[in-house]
Give the backbone structure.
Amino acid sequence: MKKLILVLSFFCFNFANAQNTNVTINLDLNLKCKFEKVILKNPNHNFETFSNEQVNRADINKLIIESKTPNTLNVKNLSKFIDKIDLEVKISNKDIVLIQAFDEERNYSESAVFTKKTGELIHEITTNIKQEEKEKDISFYSCKNNNKDT
């Protein structure tokens, strides 16, 4: 739970105070990510955690992250939404990759943080942003790079 609070604080702090694009390193990652757990906040669950044995979630077999300085960051195969929309927040440095995108009405967003050192990927989906009762789906993955030279 402490890790989740730290990550959510990281999102809020960086979105409020950082520029929306900050790519300081070139990357070409081809990741295979194993689903580990999900935290759900919705009318039925109040930030409850479910393991991979409790919910049916697919692994991500080919997550592509490409970054080129100074401001290009492409992410493919994380979700259908991320595949088809321009990222609003794009940060990539030697330690992390951070992205966020909103729908046109700004009532739906997806964010992701990939920590290169640990291989941990956190993917957050927030719906009903404009309503008092937002819904969240926060998935945790363990990733390995399929590229042999990176």
Q: What stands out?
A: Confidence is low (pLDDT under 50) at residues 8-18. The longest helix spans residues 2-17.
